[in-house]
Hints:
Blueprint: H1 9-42, E1 46-48, E2 50-53, E3 55-56, E4 67-68, H2 70-82, E5 86-88, H3 90-99, E6 107-114, H4 117-130, E7 134-138, H5 140-148, H6 161-170, E8 173-177, H7 201-223, E9 229-231, H8 242-247, E10 252-254, E11 261-263, E12 276-277, H9 284-302
Parallel strand pairs: 2-6, 2-12, 3-4, 5-6, 6-7, 7-8, 9-10
Antiparallel strand pairs: 1-11
Helix pairs in contact: 2-4
Amino acid sequence: MLRYHRPRPKILAFLSVTFAAAILFTAILTRGTTAEPAQADAEEEIAMPVIMYHHILESSKLLGSYVITPTELENDFKWIQKEGYTPIVVADLLNYVYNDVPLPDKPIMITFDDGYESNYVYAYPLLQKYGYKAVINIFGRCTDEFTQTEDKHINYSHITWDEIQKMAESGVIEFQNHSYNMHSNSNGSRKGIQKLYSEDAAAYRKALTNDLGKLQEEFEEHLGYSPTAFAYPFGYIEPAADSIIRDMGFQATFSCEEKIHYITKDPESLYKIKRFNRPHNINTSDFFAKIEKTRKQKEKEKL
């Protein structure tokens, strides 16, 4: 007959301590396990190709690296439609990062730099036709000049404030800041927003704040809002500008680095958004194949 023997006090004490330690260890493991999915969600990377267009002309000697035809643009839109991509704008990115508003399954961003009148004449009707949204980053000084002059030609004109207001009100175009007058090398010294060797930190901050701020103020005057994103002129990145741009309230920036951009819940993913420049004389399939190649390279690096 088996008899039950009462554990001695020392044994009970040892078992109690061991049991408590086991509970604590299990709690720590459980807490770590339940936290992992939330962390994974926060770090989820969403691939977002971003296309950078500039000027659009029917037929011209100007066709080249930064000038394409309306037919090439529409062929790109047809490809986007066929592949099931959904064009989004900066507001959609901000809503995703800050307000947990989901992005579409296959997001893509269509951007136009400089704000040529051809964006209004050719791109705007095509965007309406396909039901797409796009971002136009304007060069403020040129918009002011062509708002005030009658000397206009599709080859060189920029959109006016009246045209900007019409496009913005349609909900098709989101306008952002591309500098007021730093998209110019007319003085032969500064390249885009790059800091001059002769400038100290205070002088540079003043120069950049005054330039970008002037265009922000004009947006407030004409459209009643301030842009949330800044596109680096010529793609020149200036490390000294980073804190200034953020201090001014810009929540996103566009670069010209040609890679697939990945969005996460981290607000840092909104800065230096990578873009592919769209040149003339390369067919749509080949152009987007180059983009897909960078995606595959990224996926391979993860393995």
